[in-house]
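Anyone up for a design puzzle?
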């Protein structure tokens, strides 16, 4: 198969199973999420191809540096850190930052096959291109609901859902997205952030608008669609004024005071209050659903309760703590109060018990201690990061004019 560049037709058949979304009416088709199941041997062989493909892509630097999605040693934390670092520099200089967060519609399902094959032939060696061409073409799918199955249908667009190669093929397809020297572009798969800063809000929006026009023309050429109504425009600044509105394909993007990017809620002054409150609300909801296991009436042992807390609740508030941990103490206390309440319940501690004794008994660090420990480990990790855009985050810490905490504060000098 590797020698002759052939992918068996029997391995190109996808079985689509419909999963009902939580809280959605079962009689509407939009209430279901389609899950694609591929043959096991197909996915095993894709592993072999994936190693060769990713090695070639990395050696020839086909994927742009600002793309952090589906790449080894790249995570959402580093990408959001890049965005936050740019915003922080803007606030330090007391400028305006015009930010756009694009929403690409059905990005993986709408990949144009002819355009993808053109780019694969342009950048990959012939034998690997022939194999991927055979892998992409002539794919079919059928639906299965309970014991009933549909007829076969041809897959005319998109990368194979549930496949090993799908993410890599999408990154190659979008690797030639336009870039600009005065624009910060941050992409994680199809999640795209665009930022430009200037002392004049009009100039900042003009810079973003010129770049959006280039991106819109590129999307139109390669049959990629972005929803202007679901995309967001925000002004990051310490001042009251906003940057003028910007358009995508003639449609004005809605202006927001808080935007969501990679599960982070970014506010215009970067104080993290909204993000912490959203996480607290999510924790309250999860804790209520687990109260029968973690409550005082539960017969589980303390160790098992603590294990559930570490596996389900703790990852919610520790996600991105390296970034939002720089918030002021009053905002950090919001998360600390939640942890104190849960740990007291787990330990069956009376109301008059000192919280320090509970933390010592359960050997659980406080939120501030977690901020220091995880931030130190994160700083050490990105110091040896393979992407220069990530390592630059530790080497460029300017003199601050504002009385704001920074991620590296209290962690000692950077070596």
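Challenge accepted. My sequence:
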């Amino acid at each position: 198969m590797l020698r002759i560049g052939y992918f068996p037709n029997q391995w190109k058949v996808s079985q689509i199973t419909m999963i009902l979304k939580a809280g959605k009416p079962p009689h509407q088709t939009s209430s279901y999420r389609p899950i694609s199941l591929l043959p096991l041997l197909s996915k095993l062989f894709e592993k072999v191809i994936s190693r060769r493909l990713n090695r070639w892509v990395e050696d020839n630097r086909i994927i742009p540096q600002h793309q952090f999605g589906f790449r080894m040693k790249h995570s959402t934390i580093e990408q959001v850190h890049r965005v936050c670092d740019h915003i922080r520099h803007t606030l330090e200089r007391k400028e305006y930052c015009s930010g756009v967060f694009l929403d690409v519609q059905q990005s993986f399902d709408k990949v144009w096959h002819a355009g993808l094959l053109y780019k694969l032939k342009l950048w990959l060696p012939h034998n690997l291109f022939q194999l991927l061409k055979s892998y992409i073409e002539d794919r079919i799918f059928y639906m299965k609901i309970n014991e009933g199955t549909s007829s076969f249908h041809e897959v005319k667009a998109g990368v194979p859902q549930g496949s090993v190669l799908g993410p890599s093929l999408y990154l190659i397809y979008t690797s030639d997205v336009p870039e600009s020297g005065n624009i910060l572009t941050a992409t994680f798969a199809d999640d795209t952030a665009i930022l430009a800063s200037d002392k004049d809000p009009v100039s900042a929006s003009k810079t973003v608008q010129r770049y959006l026009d280039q991106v819109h023309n590129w999307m139109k050429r390669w049959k990629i669609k972005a929803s202007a109504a679901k995309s967001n425009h925000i002004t990051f600044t310490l001042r009251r004024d906003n940057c003028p509105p910007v358009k995508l394909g003639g449609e004005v993007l809605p202006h927001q005071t808080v935007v969501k990017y990679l599960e982070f809620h970014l506010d215009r002054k970067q104080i993290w209050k909204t993000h912490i409150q959203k996480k607290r609300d999510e924790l309250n909801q999860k804790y209520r659903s687990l109260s029968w296991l973690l409550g005082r009436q539960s017969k589980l042992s303390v160790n098992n309760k603590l294990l559930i807390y570490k596996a389900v609740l703790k990852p919610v508030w520790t996600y991105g703590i390296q970034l939002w941990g720089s918030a002021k103490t009053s905002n950090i206390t919001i998360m600390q109060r939640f942890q104190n309440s849960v740990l007291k319940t787990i330990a069956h501690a009376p109301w008059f018990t000192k919280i320090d004794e509970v933390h010592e008994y359960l050997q659980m660090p406080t939120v501030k201690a977690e901020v220091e420990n995880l931030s130190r480990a994160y700083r050490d990790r990105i110091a040896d990061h393979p992407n220069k855009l990530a390592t630059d985050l530790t080497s460029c810490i300017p003199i601050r004019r504002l009385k704001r905490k920074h991620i590296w504060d209290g962690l000692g000098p950077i070596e």
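A detail worth pointing out: The first strand starts at residue 13 and ends at 20.
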